[in-house]
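Format notes (please read before filing issues)

Several people have asked whether sequences and structure tokens are stored in separate files. They are not. Every record keeps both together, in the order shown below: the sequence lines, then the token lines. Line labels are part of the format and must not be stripped during preprocessing.
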Amino acid sequence: MTETATLIPLITFIPIFTAISDCLRHCAPRNRNWLRFKELELEFADNYGVETWADVFNFRVMPALEPEAKRWLLIQKSSSGIKSVKILE
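Then the structure lines:
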């Protein structure tokens, strides 16, 4: 992970967690706020660079997510080519 990614305060990407968890307790997982997540992702990459976003996403955001949120992100990011996701336990 780059030094820049380690120096970015947590408060900077809290809205990303909020977008992912939006409706988690009140809505079905498919209703989470994907568009808001994409907006925040682009904004972050514009402000800090794509490489820093990749580091923050892979090493700070993803490890903090519960398995259901990780599945949701996988499905959203690859929804154009994947028809189903098999959950292995």
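For reference, the curators noted about this record: The mean pLDDT is 81. Residues 47 and 71 are 27 Å apart (CA to CA).
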